Amino acid sequence: xxxxxxxxxxxxxxxxxxxxxxxxxxxxxxxxxxxxxxxxxxxxxxxxxxxxxxxxxxxxxxxxxxxxxxxxxxxxxxxxxxxxxxxxxxxxxxxxxxxxxxxxxxxxxxxxxxxxxxxxxxxxxxxxxxxxxxxxxxxxxxxxxxxxxxxxxxxxxxxxxxxxxxxxxxxxxxxxxxxxxxxxxxxxxxxxxxxxxxxxxxxxxxxxxxxxxxxxxxxxxxxxxxxxxxxxxxxxxxxxxxxxxxxxxxxx
Amino acid sequence: xxxxxxxxxxxxxxxxxxxxxxxxxxxxxxxxxxxxxxxxxxxxxxxxxxxxxxxxxxxxxxxxxxxxxxxxxxxxxxxxxxxxxxxxxxxxxxxxxxxxxxxxxxxxxxxxxxxxxxxxxxxxxxxxxxxxxxxxxxxxxxxxxxxxxxxxxxxxxxxxxx
Lengths: 252, 162
Known about the structure:
The structure holds two protein chains of two kinds. Chain A has helices at residues 2-11, 61-66, 75-87, 106-121, 123-146, 186-201, 220-229, 237-251; strands at residues 17-22, 25-29, 43-48, 53-57, 91-93, 96-101, 153-156, 167-171, 178-183, 207-212, 232-234. By secondary structure, chain A is α+β, with helices and mostly antiparallel strands. Chain A folds into two domains: 2-121, Yope Regulator, Chain: A (2-Layer Sandwich); 134-251, Trna Endonuclease, Chain: A, domain 1 (3-Layer(aba) Sandwich), CATH 3.40.1350.10. In chain A, the strands form two sheets. Chain A has a six-stranded antiparallel sheet with strand order 1-2-3-4-6-5. In chain A, strand 10 (207-212), helix 7 (220-229) and strand 11 (232-234) form a beta-alpha-beta unit. Chain A is elongated. Chain B is of the alpha+beta class. Chain B has one domain (6-145). Chain B contains three helices and nine strands. Chain B has helices spanning 6-14, 109-113, 131-141, and strands spanning 17-21, 28-30, 33-42, 48-56, 63-70, 77-92, 97-106, 121-124, 144-145. The chains are: A alpha+beta, B alpha+beta. The interface between A and B is large, with 38 and 42 residues.
């Protein structure tokens, strides 16, 4: 490994070292950091001395770090994760991200892996920011793609004299129409609760369905009020898109 | 969007909390690391938190125990404090000043108000020297009440106390 250290030192302008983490496993100390200042975990170990190849890997520490705040626990997330790896020629074995390199390719292999580690550990940022800013757009897109056969009416006013009580989408199903509300924050949760209570008071037949951006972000009191009022809730857009089609089919 | 003060941030860390979703009896081995988590609520019911506990299966020194706070507005979650093992870190990455010691990450108040997810400030600690000790230290630090049934907390005196 010392020869490679000399080579790496040249390529990293001397800002690199190797520390033996365990016998035969060397941790790379290089100026590659996560957002919180922790160094990116990259290890080097011989894959095969005969073939002169080195595994540059992270021993699953990137996925462990990602799991602090984000789980790859749905098919969509798995798909995105594997797409990141595949597009960047990184392999994965039980969470261990790795690339096999010859000594002459160590530097680009390390940079390639560091680049992918950055993308993987930032999966949570991307998804969160996209959803936070595009919640209603994504809800609309899903409805227009998957629930058109139930004739959705956007911005429906069940009580003509009350233009302050608006339903995001009305759907025609056999039993009773579904009134669907997209709820992003406490204010919308309260408005939805008030609207549903007023519709009940007016003896309008309907079934209320709420799709939350993030149910847990609501205050305790608003969670309680809306849960006690509406008929059906989806705690996130993701759970709605996974379950809506069979749900609507059962209502028909 | 709410602007927190340092006092409010300190209170979020230190306020008494109860467990509303208990941790699993055993840490689950997933993709080479052991994981557990629990949900907490402040005793007054106003604030919600997630605790994550992670320990690498092969490298026992690579562990992390953190407290994530659920903002009440659109900012999602921020990890406001996190106890780590002796892994490489830097307070000045541009200076490549790297340390290997047990350290605690804390969220700077400016970053919390910006909705940052990860705590940047790091302080070396001598208060624990293993995952188990760190867990015990963390439970006390963030004031989780009624944790005894769920964790074998270490209450032993320091062998090296004089």
